Automatic annotation (TrEMBL):
The keyword Chaperone does not apply. CDD domains: DHQS. It comes from the Bacteria. Residues 63-175 form the 3-dehydroquinate synthase N-terminal domain. Residues 177-320 form the 3-dehydroquinate synthase C-terminal domain. The keyword rRNA processing does not apply. It comes from Winogradskyella aquimaris. The lineage of its organism: Bacteria, Pseudomonadati, Bacteroidota, Flavobacteriia, Flavobacteriales. It is an enzyme of class 4 (lyase). InterPro entries: Dehydroquinate_synthase, DHQ_synth_AroB, DHQ_synth_fam, DHQS/DOIS_N, DHQS_C. Its cofactor is Co(2+); NAD(+). GO terms for molecular function: 3-dehydroquinate synthase activity. Its EC number is 4.2.3.4. Keywords: Cobalt, Lyase, Metal-binding, NAD, Nucleotide-binding, Zinc. This is 3-dehydroquinate synthase.
Length: 356
């Protein structure tokens, strides 16, 4: 697969990944290499990765963090910063983030802020991270249960996508990443959406071309608007309500936490419904979206008390401005509209539709 040039990095795929990484190390001669993993990727991915890396005389230090969204915190960052300092990391050190979206988000933030910024490379190992979290330079951590409230936009030097790592993923994590791919179709390319919803084999070996297409779509959007002043906001379709749902289920001990893609799938369905009531998404296309999402994602019970709490969390959404909650909605599949508003009554109506 041909490598993809982003604004300040290059995304390499499969066969070229390790030769490009080794060439980068040789050319840049970092003082030390730090590899950040979580408890899952330490066992499932790190041995293969290290076996492929030729660091020459450069020392590699492995740092391990707990897995899961609830550990994407500033406290974990502090632990990583302190470990790097103890191992004498300097401004010529290189950080490699080997993991899913939690590792690439947190590791990118750590690298972007340590000594005001060191080089880093993302090696995404989950489908979600390959198609979304590792590309575009968004880094950061959660503030309590609020998603990605602290962070910077700072792109790494390279992204290395080795899709063989997907063979280590549980099926529900594959489905979680698939939600972001569906989003790319809904906001950008109806033919891509049609291909995805008619795809029957969510196996690692069959996904290479679609992963590539998703990276191209995201890169096209981010290249035009790297700091999210306008067009890049379309990538947040499904995320206004989806992030609030994810935060609520993560912070409520009575609920089973949802994976990111599971929450975003609900958010996309709700926001598509709102689109039919506000900006003219056709009933036909809405039903198509509903069928496409529910084909893969099971419905989750969201009762009246849940709805009120989720709506209350919307005030923390990063797209908000001047006290207004801003949504990305759909005029049609492939035709998003940013900075839309919806009142609470309509949001509750969307939840009621979803529950029925």
């Amino acid at each position: 697969m041909k490598s993809i040039k982003t604004k300040s990095a290059i995304v390499h795929f499969n066969d070229s990944v390790y030769s490009e990484l080794n060439a980068y190390i040789k050319a840049n001669n970092p003082s030390k290499i730090f590899v950040l993993v979580d408890t899952n990727t330490h066992d499932a991915c790190l041995p293969k990765f290290l076996s492929k890396v030729d660091s020459g005389e450069v020392v590699i230090e492995v740092m391990e963090m707990p897995e899961g969204e609830d550990h994407k915190t500033i406290d974990i960052c502090t632990g990583v910063w302190e470990a790097m300092s103890e191992y004498n990391a300097d401004r010529k050190s290189l950080m490699i983030n080997l993991g899913g979206g939690v590792v690439t988000d947190l590791g990118g933030f750590v690298a972007s802020t340590y000594m005001r910024g060191i080089d880093y490379i993302n090696v995404p190992t989950s489908l979600l991270a390959m198609v979304d979290a590792s590309v575009g330079g968004k880094t950061g951590v959660d503030l309590g249960n609020l998603k990605n409230q602290i962070g910077v936009i700072s792109e790494g030097s390279m992204v290395l996508i080795d899709t063989s790592f997907l063979e280590t993923l549980p099926h529900n994590h594959m489905i979680s990443g698939y939600a972001e791919m569906l989003k790319h179709g809904l906001i950008y390319d109806k033919s891509y959406w049609n291909m995805l919803v008619n795809f029957e084999n969510l196996e690692a070996s069959a996904l290479d071309n679609m992963i590539y297409d998703s990276v191209v779509i995201k890169n096209n959007i981010v290249t035009e608007d790297p700091t999210e002043k306008g067009l890049r906001k379309v990538l947040n379709f499904g995320h206004t309500l989806g992030h609030a749902i994810e935060s609520y289920f993560l912070g409520n001990g009575d609920k089973i936490p949802l994976l990111h893609g599971e929450a975003i799938a609900i958010g996309m369905l709700l926001e598509a419904y709102i689109s039919t009531k506000t900006i003219g998404l056709s009933t036909e296309e809405f039903k198509e979206i509903e069928k496409g999402i529910l084909k893969t994602f099971s419905k989750i019970e969201i009762n009246e008390n849940d709805q009120k709490a989720i709506i209350d969390l919307l005030k923390y959404d990063k797209k908000n401005s001047h006290g207004k909650i801003n949504f990305v909605l759909l005029e049609a599949i492939g035709k998003p509209k940013i900075d839309c508003e919806a009142n609470n009554d309509l949001i509750i109506e969307a939840f009621e539709y979803y529950n029925k």
